[in-house]
Amino acid sequence: MKPILTTVVMAFALVAQAASAPAAEDAKPAAAAPQSAVDGWQAEKNAQGITLDEKQTEVVKVVSKYFSDLKSLKGAFVQTGADNKRMKGKFFVLRPGRFRFDYSPPSKQIIVSDGEYLAIQDLDLNNEDRVALDQTPFRLLLRKDVDLLRDAKIVEVQQADDLIVLGIQDKSPDSPGRIKLFLSTKPSLELKEWVTTDAQGLDTRIEISQLSTDDELDKNLFKIQMLGRKPGLQ
After folding, report:
1. Cα-to-chain-centroid distance, residue 48
2. Which of 28, 157, 200, 229 fits a disulfide with 56 by CB distance 3.0 to 4.6 angstroms?
3. Which helix (H) or strand (E) holds 55?
4. Cα 180 to Cα 232: distance, rounded to the nearest angstrom
5. Cβ within 8 Å of residue 87, ≥6 positions away
6. 72: alpha, beta or left? (left if phi > 0; alpha if psi -120 to 50)
């Protein structure tokens, strides 16, 4: 269960090896844009991240606004762990602070945040790990007012014609690790995937698809149910 906890705590919706279940899908993880296709900015690194120029600063502001304006989101995901095992499922996000990841069979795992706590439940083992949401990097992207310039160390900014790559790290020492966001810019700005790196340097990739932002999500989805009860809507 601990590897699942690490994976989720280090992502946005999720960092180490998540993989008590066998590979669920043969889909290959989406490759990052080749360097030749990306306008990579060289910037001086310091304790607060990199020194941003005016263009980079505007990119970070655009991404912050995207998450601030995002009220709800649902779709499908494929998770690829550091050991290349893949798991898939459906996810739901209701800002501020709430999200849910339901892993498809044969996995029986649920990750859910009620806005205060994040719980990782294994229904096979009937156990749970729980952590305060404010102790995870999720708070950077799920808080009511997203301001990455204020709250995050910016460690990477790249932009191509149809792609933004943004690497961030929480300024809080209680939330170690790093998240790299990949957002398409055409036809409109949209989150496509993220890669999280934990303190040991292990990467976990989450690719998302079939996205919808127009649905009324039932708030019961984001209640942390006691183990032994049927998860989901009551």
Report:
1. 22
2. 157
3. helix 54-69
4. 30
5. 18, 19, 21, 23, 24, 78, 79, 81, 103, 104, 107
6. beta
Contact 113, 222 (CB under 8 A): yes
CA distance 56 to 136: 25
Q: What are phi and psi of 24, to 5 degrees?
A: -105, -15
pLDDT score of 7: 45
DSSP E strands, the chain: 39-40, 45-46, 49-50, 72-80, 86-94, 98-103, 109-114, 117-122, 127-132, 152-159, 163-170, 178-184, 190-197, 203-212
pLDDT tens, position by position, 202-214: 999 999 999 999 8
Q: For residues 173 and 196, what is the distance between their CA atoms, to the nearest angstrom?
A: 16
pTM, two decimals, is 0.76
**What is the predicted pLDDT for the residue at 167?**
95
Closest CA to 67 of 223, 201, 197, 194: 194
Going by pLDDT thresholds of 50, 70 and 90, the confidence category of residue 120 is very high
Between CA 122 and CA 128 the distance in angstroms is 6
Res. 113 pLDDT band, cuts 50 70 90: very high
Residues 44-100: tens digit of each pLDDT: 344 467 899 999 999 999 999 999 999 999 999 999 999 999 999 999 999 999 999
Is the separation of the CB atoms in 101 and 89 below 8 Å? yes
